């Protein structure tokens, strides 16, 4: 039977994703695992009101197939939203996708044959790693620091390769899992490094709106909005972190030539994204509900960030270091080299606390002297207790 399966089922990280989703929804545990919003934060009442007041014809349309490219009013709303951020909407085309992970999958299918090289950050979003492995890519990870991908390491890697990588995948704003945000200087350096190499930049920007301080909003400027004709940039975004993962809505912004082939691939994958969720999301945006909701989320996540930072300072051994994120969902803990997060996970699980191990985000699934804590999904009252238990588990393994 095993011989019947294609190579596409052999992803090292697919099992990690399954375990991650199980841990995120486990009962009777304090979970720092889930990189998702808390159920109590969803705009349920607003969505109820929107659907209840939709004209009958629009309700009927919401049950129907729609254009592969996306529900046209939502496409226009997304483009208006992106134009306000300074993105080059008019020179590119927008494709609505079933979550931003589908956009990443479409781009991979469009460009990658088995054995082709893809560059990623290390650590890297595990969902993207799973996609890249599924299509048989040779994934080459580049280390990051607190300012972004290490440019010298990127240049060295490019020089060392026998063939040109198809693209570099990055999550520059409130990185998953590391929680960092690229500095403007590092973003410019990255574009300069890729200039003239023929390497596409795939910019995944799911957390862009979740900054904690309005005076730091300028840091979130996407790289696709920087002037550069020498680098092909594909931009992906998502409603999962700013409206709800269950909507399964994402989008990509790409040049017309890339867009055309991407639309063909999407048509073969699912024909179209759900009209129901597209119509609801469009009404949410057009009725002016998105920005007030984002302001609510920023305050909520900022408060949670303060709770976990204070708890880490209170309980963590002094040998453990971590970042203080400026936005997003994540805190990234660095452990002494002699320790590994898998052993710590086994210990903390005994006391009912789970997180995501560092090796989950390593393209080679080996580097394990770090771990990710998500503060977005769990009840606020569990944060301090969870950090205390985790800290005790770390001490036992030191």
Derived from helix and strand composition plus strand pairing, the structural class reads alpha/beta
Q: Name the CATH homologous superfamily of the largest domain.
A: Type I PLP-dependent aspartate aminotransferase-like (Major domain)
Estimated helix fraction: 40-55%
CATH fold name of the largest domain, please?
Aspartate Aminotransferase, domain 2
Main sheet specs: 8 strands, mixed
CATH class type of the largest domain? Alpha Beta
| Straight-line distance between termini | 45 Å
Specify Rg, calculated over alpha carbons: 21 Å
The proportion of strand residues reads: 5-15%
State the strand order across the main sheet.
2-9-8-7-6-3-4-5
Shape: globular
**What is the residue-mean pLDDT, rounded to a whole number?**
94
Poorly predicted regions: none
Number of strands: 14
Question: Secondary-structure element sequence?
Answer: HEHHHEHEHEEHEHEEEHHHEEHEEEH
Assign the CATH architecture of the largest domain: 3-Layer(aba) Sandwich
Q: Helical segment tally?
A: 13
- Number of self-contained structural domains: 2
């Amino acid at each position: 039977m095993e011989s019947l399966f294609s190579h596409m089922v052999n992803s090292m990280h697919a099992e990690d994703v399954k375990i991650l989703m199980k841990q995120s929804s486990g009962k009777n545990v304090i979970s720092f695992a889930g990189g998702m919003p808390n159920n109590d934060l969803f705009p349920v009442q607003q969505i109820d009101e929107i659907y209840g007041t939709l004209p009958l014809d629009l309700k009927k349309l919401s049950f129907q197939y729609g254009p592969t490219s996306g529900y046209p009013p939502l496409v226009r709303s997304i483009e208006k939203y992106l134009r306000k951020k300074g993105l080059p909407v008019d020179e590119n085309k927008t494709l609505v996708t079933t979550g931003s992970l589908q956009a990443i999958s479409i781009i991979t299918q469009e460009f990658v044959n088995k054995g082709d090289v893809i560059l990623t950050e290390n650590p890297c979003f595990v969902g993207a790693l799973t996609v890249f492995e599924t299509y048989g890519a040779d994934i080459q990870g580049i280390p990051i620091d607190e300012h972004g991908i290490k440019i010298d390491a990127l240049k060295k890697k490019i020089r060392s390769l026998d063939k040109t990588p198809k693209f570099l995948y990055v999550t520059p704003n409130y990185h998953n899992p590391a929680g960092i945000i690229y500095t403007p200087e590092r973003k410019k350096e990255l574009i300069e490094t890729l200039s003239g190499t023929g390497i596409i930049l795939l910019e995944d920007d799911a957390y862009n709106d979740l900054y904690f301080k309005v005076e730091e909003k300028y840091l979130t400027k996407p790289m696709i909005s920087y002037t550069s004709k020498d680098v092909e940039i594909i931009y992906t975004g998502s409603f999962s972190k700013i409206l709800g993962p269950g909507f399964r809505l994402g989008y990509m912004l790409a040049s017309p030539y890339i867009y055309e082939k991407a639309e063909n691939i999407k048509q073969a994958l699912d024909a179209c994204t759900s009209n129901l969720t597209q119509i609801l999301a469009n009404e949410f945006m057009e009725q002016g509900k998105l920005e007030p909701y984002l302001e609510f989320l920023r305050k909520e996540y900022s408060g949670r960030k303060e709770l976990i930072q204070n708890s880490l300072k209170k309980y963590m051994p002094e040998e453990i270091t971590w970042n203080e994120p400026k936005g997003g969902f994540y805190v990234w803990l660095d452990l002494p080299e002699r320790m590994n997060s898998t052993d710590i996970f086994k210990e903390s699980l005994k006391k009912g606390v789970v997180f995501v191990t560092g090796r989950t985000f390593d393209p080679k699934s080996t580097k394990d002297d770090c771990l990710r804590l998500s503060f977005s999904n769990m009840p606020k009252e569990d944060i301090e207790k969870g950090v205390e238990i985790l800290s005790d588990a770390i001490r036992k393994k030191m």
